[in-house]
Amino acid sequence: MQYLHPVNTVELFPEERLALLQLLNALPDEQWANPTVCPGWSVHDVALHLLGDDIGIISVRRDGYREPRAPADLDLSQWVNIVAFINQRNEQWVQAMRRTSPRLLCEFLQMTGAAIARHFAQLDQFALGVPVHWAGPDPAPIWLDTAREYTERWVHQQHIRDAVEQPGLKERRWFAPVLETFVYALPQALRQVRSPLGTTVQLVVTGDAGGTWSAARTDQAWALSTEAAREPDARVTMDQEIAWRLFTKGLTRDEALPHIGLEGNRALIDKVLNMVSIIA
Prior knowledge:
Radius of gyration: 19 Å
Strand order of the largest sheet: 5-4-3-6-7
CATH superfamily of the largest domain: dinb family like domain
Distance between the termini: 22 Å
Order of helices and strands: HHHHEEHHHEEEEHHEH
């Protein structure tokens, strides 16, 4: 995997959590039960999931704790099994924690949010860490893993904000790092396409937080670039709001298509439209 300039998200964690807590603490009791775009999950459930994410990072990565192994017959080398295992574990966590009151949940999120921010701040962001699976199977720079964790929290906060009809964190400083991180899924999405060397796919995301990225076929893999290709073999253009929702399954492909500009090779375009920047 070829990496562009690092996506720096470390300094955003404390402020993102502060914004979340300000939102949650102001919610009337009935809005905690509002449904979200996450199937079967309410606002309360999504907040519980964020707490579970925090606890997993703190326990495993900070404290070195190893939870009991997955069932012996579960092959976690297969993507479908990874997704199924994570989804099952997330659902079990949310169901078990539904007895937690909103007030106590906010207190927990304040505590774990501070611990998460400290943890990421003390890491060497340029060292190699764990794989970011939707970007590729190899160990990734820690800054990309950190950015992945930021996008997880940003996206779920938007789910909550949508559910209670509150504006999202859409200023460029919050939103641009999300899109810059998501685009690392593009080479992985194209990896199985048999194309001649030099074939280029361009993704254009319009809006204040957007940008232009290209993936070019090399003799090794698809190489990501921020240079605009003059005559790409395929070009996909979409608004930033469509982009983050499409790449996180908040919109289906059919829902997004009327709002997307498509030019060039259809097989390449299909891979871009099927790109997913989350494990789900």
